[in-house]
Design a protein that fits this description.
This protein is mainly α. The chain has helices spanning 17-32, 47-55, 68-76, 80-91, 96-106, and strands spanning 39-40, 61-62. Strands 1-2 form a two-stranded parallel sheet. It is globular and about 40 Å long. The N and C termini lie far apart (28 Å).
Length: 107
């Protein structure tokens, strides 16, 4: 969904379990093919999303320069094992609200 279009913006859900599960399949598929995947855009620049993406196996994030310090701090504040557990739990959630609550409770 085009997050800038008011008619469809409510359908833009970065933290939707379906979106996260799709990304996990892509990350795993690229990894199995020996090609490291990367993410470019809003999710990569969101500290909460970055922790989940790294927990799912992503190692290349591209983002606006203004987001780099906050994302770097978020990633440095947690262990890889912690991010992997967060990602595993997020993938089991039923709704985007559940994922966001999970993230909030783990902060």
């Amino acid at each position: 969904a085009d997050r800038m279009n008011p008619a469809v913006a409510p359908y833009y859900q970065s933290f939707s379990p379906a979106m996260l599960q799709t990304l996990k399949l892509i990350i795993d598929g690229f990894g199995a093919a020996g090609t490291p995947p990367s993410v470019c855009g809003e999710m990569g620049g969101d500290p909460r999303a970055a922790q989940i993406l790294v927990g799912m196996g992503l190692r290349k994030l591209s983002m606006h320069g203004a987001a780099m310090a906050e994302v770097k701090a978020a990633l440095a504040s947690r262990s890889l094992a912690w991010m992997e557990k967060l990602a595993d739990d997020a993938l089991l959630c039923e709704t985007e609200a559940d994922v966001l609550t999970l993230i909030e409770n783990r902060a």
